[in-house]
Amino acid sequence: MKTAIKILALAIALAAQPAFAGRDPGERLEHMKKELKLTPEQTEQVRKILEEFEPQRKALHEQKRALHEQVRSRLKAVLSKEQGEKLDKMAEERRARHHRGWDTEPAKSPSP
Questions:
Q1: Torsion angle of the four alpha carbons 61, 67, 71, 74, in this order, in degrees rounded to the nearest 10
Q2: How much is the pLDDT for 99?
Q3: Domain ranges, ordered by start, for the chain
Q4: Which UniProt keywords apply (predicted)?
Q5: What element of type H or E holds 95?
């Protein structure tokens, strides 16, 4: 029983991490299965948990994205044009660093 609780806690913690934010439950499950060496029984339990919480996770992700856009819009309202452009570039670089861990090749900045 204690092992099941530990696995559940770990699954929830991993699913909440930013690295998992853009992945669907199937991709997260496969990653966890590989990294945690889940048994078939654990895999099924984790799959059910991830699917159960997916609607809430998506809703929170959308709320976070909307909040981020509001903050960014307000920041750009007080910045000069050049500062706003630099803020955009910083955001692109942050996204590239974030995705680099999941991509098979280094992230590339979009062409102007």
A1: 140
A2: 73
A3: 2-100
A4: Signal
A5: helix 81-100
